[in-house]
Fold this sequence. Notes:
alpha/beta, Heat Shock Protein 90, five-stranded parallel beta sheet, five-stranded antiparallel beta sheet
Amino acid sequence: MTVRTTALDRMAFDHRMTAPGTDEAFLAAALPFLAEGLAAPDEPPPVAIAAPAKLDVLREALGTDAKEVALVPHTDWYTGSAANAVARAAGHLAAHAGPDGRIHLLMEPVWTGRAGRSPRESAEWMRYEALANLLFAPTSTTALCVYDTRTTPPALVAAARRTHPDGGAYEDPLRLTAELDEAPLPSPPADARHLAAPTADEVRSWAAGRGLGTADAELFTTAVLEAASLAPVTATLLWGAAPACVCELRLSHRVDDPLAGFVPPPTAALTPGQGLWFTRQVCAYVDLRPTPAGTAVRLQYG
């Protein structure tokens, strides 16, 4: 997928939101949206990704049209981090969308799982929603994001209004992500393990010693090495214990691209050699912060 970062008024991606507080309000937004998708030329059937209870409500309201709409439980779609959500959406568009990514997607995030569970989780979801306006700009996809006020924290609804052009408080995605990055990260603990440039053997051994199983230690190690491929590494710090093992890499160069690691690679398969994309896909959190000498990349596995 090629990313275009031109002015928002030239973007084809139609990124909408609704914040219903009742089933009736949900249907009032969802039914016209799905009808729009069913009537759109050169599009496959629309997809509704929502809580199972909402799918039941939709199925009943759609009647015979229900067979024309793909109904997907949102716990089957949103299964990990915000970066995983980018991958899932990009993969679906590549496999199922019409020309130029044409498809209508009704999408309800899962707030009882990772996203929304803490300010840290909420910030990552806000980043995803903001960057979606850039990542999917080249597509003709139409998305309606559902923020049910009965289950979504009020702060997240307010944040969503800043990341959707029709939300009433929309802000430039780059400015918004820069704001998120102004939040300082906790300092590494005094007993963090210090290395120079990381090697596979050293990282793998450390991760295993901190409680990660063989497969997880290997994934953590690969994630570290993929992040280290961004620029020469001047220092490596390791701390924490399974499942939340943490590595911070100090790079000698600045990494200023807010989309770094979010742009899907040409092939959908997750394989070494994809750099920060691989790291974001296997880690719970990846943070980039400028330093006087370059960039700090902090990743947390689990």
